Amino acid sequence: MTKKKEIKLGVFLAGTGHHVASWRHPEAPADASMNLDYFKELAQTAERGKLDMLFLADSLSIDGKSHPNVLTRFEPFTLLSALAQVTAHIGLTATASTTYSEPFHIARQFASLDHLSNGRAGWNVVTSSIESTALNFSGEEHLEHRLRYQRAEEFVEVVKGLWDSWEEDAFIRDKESGEFFDKEKMHELNHKGTYFSVRGPLNVSRSPQGRPVIIQAGSSGDGKALAAKTAEVIFTAQNHMESAREFYQSIKEQAVSFGRDPEKIAIMPGIFPIIGDTEEEAKTKYEELQDLIIPSVGLNILQNYLGGIDLSSYPLDGPLPELDAEASNAVKSRFKLVQDMAKRDNMTIRELYKYVAGSRGHHIFVGTPEQLADKMEEWVENQACDGFNIMPPLLPEGLNLFVDKVIPILQDRGVFRKEYEGTTLRKHFGLEKPANRYAE
Amino acid sequence: MTKKKEIKLGVFLAGTGHHVASWRHPEAPADASMNLDYFKELAQTAERGKLDMLFLADSLSIDGKSHPNVLTRFEPFTLLSALAQVTAHIGLTATASTTYSEPFHIARQFASLDHLSNGRAGWNVVTSSIESTALNFSGEEHLEHRLRYQRAEEFVEVVKGLWDSWEEDAFIRDKESGEFFDKEKMHELNHKGTYFSVRGPLNVSRSPQGRPVIIQAGSSGDGKALAAKTAEVIFTAQNHMESAREFYQSIKEQAVSFGRDPEKIAIMPGIFPIIGDTEEEAKTKYEELQDLIIPSVGLNILQNYLGGIDLSSYPLDGPLPELDAEASNAVKSRFKLVQDMAKRDNMTIRELYKYVAGSRGHHIFVGTPEQLADKMEEWVENQACDGFNIMPPLLPEGLNLFVDKVIPILQDRGVFRKEYEGTTLRKHFGLEKPANRYAE
């Protein structure tokens, strides 16, 4: 009997949970998004569950229609540096945009976090897709989709280069001779490209993981190519096993074409699990949350999701009109996902906003712990994914249930670790520590 | 009898200490600059001493001649967020440059740190004076001194504006009505200036201090004006009480001319104390450290300090030649300080590099705890300063000695707190929480 493949698991932390109306739930701590004690508790729960990592999204603007959970929140580097002090194993991953920052700053902050967490940092590389963000950064116009991705690719190359500034054994610190470091082992990058020119070296020593883990979530053509080229972990929205299998195969094939080992890329769709002891209980929980969505809020979220398209002139209980994806600056993969869903399942605008507003297009699961474990195993066995990024609709409840009820089932079935085997995020994912490009 | 004025005290943490050769000392942990456990211990020692704050410098480049302590180090926001978790009272202040960052990022990171530390964050506003930094940020040319300060002034205005994005009571979080926040209490800044255009609002709620404390260290004409206009704490290099008194008076007068209360500005010169149980012991300790300076390293530091001026053609044991301050892009106040010192005390290049390399131009004190307490009291009584930023030549030893031997004397004399009266940095400095500009 061959050993079963181990499932990779992350938890995507967001205020009171991923359901848009979660903050209205009677049990929700409504101030969650800026409550440090609350985040400490979540991180410690996730670590008790032996999860591979926790994950934070980010944004650099507020557009007035923002989800209450993300309206105000901690800046990710500062929050993860704090959480690193109350955890010892779980990976700490943050989203940081390549559109409005500088590679030197980002390289430095992740390297520093990697040191402060003893090798648990991961970077979710994104481009900023919200046009209003430019207005916070003295920008007149928002960078067009393809250019954002070109910039992102060069940005990642520069950051990786800066992470190699110092070889592992660069620091001699010979008190007698006065030689602090070996000049041959400090490297200037001297990058000169289209978007950036960066000399280096970085002023942070090589970090415990060599390089923080690179995560990508782009699912458009450009996004997928960047992910296949650079990502070690890929987040994606996949609602059906068949399309997830296609996505999985396509990414792994592209990775091979870039000369990469497809085993070294973990594909992790988001999953939005409503867990009950019985299916009935789970359904009731879901309906309770859905009933908390205020129609105007739900519609705004759907419109936002589609890149700001105005749907106010269409009846809420009628079908989604034909929309032109090319005319929108939205995340293309999301656009397509909503359109496909609307057609396939004949969904009304109201049904769509309820679906999107609740789970933001991610896979909704409603059922028992046993059923959730079954689904996870099935998807991983069928090469639809390597694991999941759990997006609890309601926090802390959803994470507590997952850790207390689903994890033990997966452990009993031999598809999830009972103890951490290592203390770095790379180790959890079975990724080698990359060699420094300059080392002999 | 009038109550004696309380002395303000910070500790400037830097690797193995502020003496350039401190890392070579037998007791120095040579890997200090990137050792988190070590920084935790320092922070906890400083808090045991009831100090107002700890302070971190920063840089955004390495130029090959950098002091070993600052060659590689933690990024300040990440380090302070970690230290916030192992301390509860001491202020946590970091240097962040206005030259190569964006106000939105800096506003956000300090606001987040202020939340994560329950109101202990302070920002040392600087401009980047090292030309090579531009090379790490796709910049062709380094911004000229005056323009850097213009940019800095606008930068600070934008950051303060962003910190007012949300009024204190903006978040209603009424689960019943579904109203999460009061739209009237969220404010767009809509700043459009010479260097920046920033819409806002910031995506962090108003922080516990309302605004993190603003620190300034510029001592040139431009720097002093910016400090008098915006700073709540001022760091400065002052070697003689008379010139310190002049500086003090000039800043406080300028502050008044800007309509500010001079009592709400704490002027804190750096002091570099070598403490021994006897004067003899202190002198021996100092000589031990000075003897560890390697001549080529010392000369490089002096040259750097003077803005990269080449002194290699002059005899080490001869006088400093006449130099043109205007031709250098160095920090002007430092330039003048070295020139004045060279003339007044007839110092040779070797003596100058030993002085500068050791203490980097800050006030060197060599003596007993009693003598140090006397000097501190004398300066504060004579309105030469409001307190000091302690720059221990050797760490952790210098901080331990200060906390264990000097603090108790100051406490006995009634010029330093025995317990913290509050938990925010503003409270330590007797500064009010500023009102939000939009609040009625």
TrEMBL record, chains A, B:
FMN binds at residues 58, 95, 145, 149, 219-220. Residues 19-381 form the Luciferase-like domain. The keyword Flavoprotein applies. SUPFAM superfamilies: Bacterial luciferase-like. CDD domains: Nitrilotriacetate_monoxgenase. Keywords: Flavoprotein, FMN, Monooxygenase, Oxidoreductase. The keyword Oxidoreductase applies. This is Nitrilotriacetate monooxygenase.
